[in-house]
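User: Quick sanity check before I run a bigger batch. Here is a single chain. Can you write out its predicted 3D structure?
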Amino acid sequence: MTATTATTVVTGLGIAAPNGLGTDDFWKATLAGESGLAELTRFDASQYPSGVAGEVPGYTAEEHIPSRLLPQTDHMTRLALTAAEWAVEDAGVRPDELPEYGMGVVTAASGGAVEFGQRELQNLWSQGKEYVSAYQSFAWFYAVNTGQISIRHKMRGPSGVLLTEQAGGIDALGQARRHIRKGVPLVVSGGVDAALCPWGWVPQIASGLMSTERNPARAYLPFAAAARGYVPGEGGAILVTEDAESARGRGAPRIYGEIAGYAATLDPGEDPGSCRLARAARNALADARVAPGEVDAVFADASGVPALDRAEARALEEVFGPYGVPVTAPKSMTGRLLAGGAALDAATALLSLRDGVIPPTANVTEADPEHRLDLVTGDPREADLRTVLVLARGHGGFNAALVLRRPA
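Assistant: Done. Predicted structure follows.
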């Protein structure tokens, strides 16, 4: 194996999403079009203009996290540790039987563990510095998920964190592939985020992009004529990526798919019309040596903000032609998960490749005719899926594209 010939495959998935805790529950709900969006319960949002969110259901930290870790972890990190545990188990990886420096961790983050940070700052302001947890020194840090996962599984190989907001999950997987091409056998990657607290809520409201609709079924309608903004959510996905030869050598129980292509671009400004998403898509396809006509489905970024939806629709038309490829936005059932969103889309796309089905865009009956998209709505669409494209855009002008291929 050389750095230029290594093939990167995904062998394990761990999912914590607003419409399902665990891969099986999530996938069943997604194919059924079941949304996890509802009135926010994590705090009282009645005085805020936005009050709908996607909260991970039925998660009890004490059932998944060792008691010694509870005081030093935020809800975000607990979800990430749980998803990583499931991904490692799904991949059949026994970390104690593999070289510690042959396993790395690369995750995505947006702003760190804001719920933990808010609580400790409140303690500081209301009671004094003696009441601030010593764990505040790292528990809020944007790299905390990478650190805690690597410590828990004794993964001491090349690691890192990518901060490109919603695009981060794809960028993390792209970085994982770079490490594998350089000779690292296994990298745990993806993203899990959680910012459903006032400190995480207010900055999103200030962006002007959040939906103010209080009806969960109408709050987040990507590509629809009635689109009015996005709904935040929490959760995401952790994936085990490996060198294909190494995975086969250790007897990996399954290969979900190959990371065949990756690319990223940066928009020059906040004007949606300057979107360079089409360039990212083309570059990822070129990296995978795939022609646009060979793409069987696109998992869209699906902002839900009318101007951003128009820009993405134009990018898709530029690459594939009008109505040129089936497009779906399963995140309509979870909300936008910040750094966890693109990783969850990648995991969803891999499940689609496995089962030959494109999940629907929930609550949207049809795309706005202006967009000229073949949007999958209503029921899942069966298809012979071989190659899919996942797109993501992060606040600040980040664009990312990932090509996933069904295993041979």
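DSSP finds twelve helices and 16 strands in the chain.

User: Great, the batch can go ahead then.
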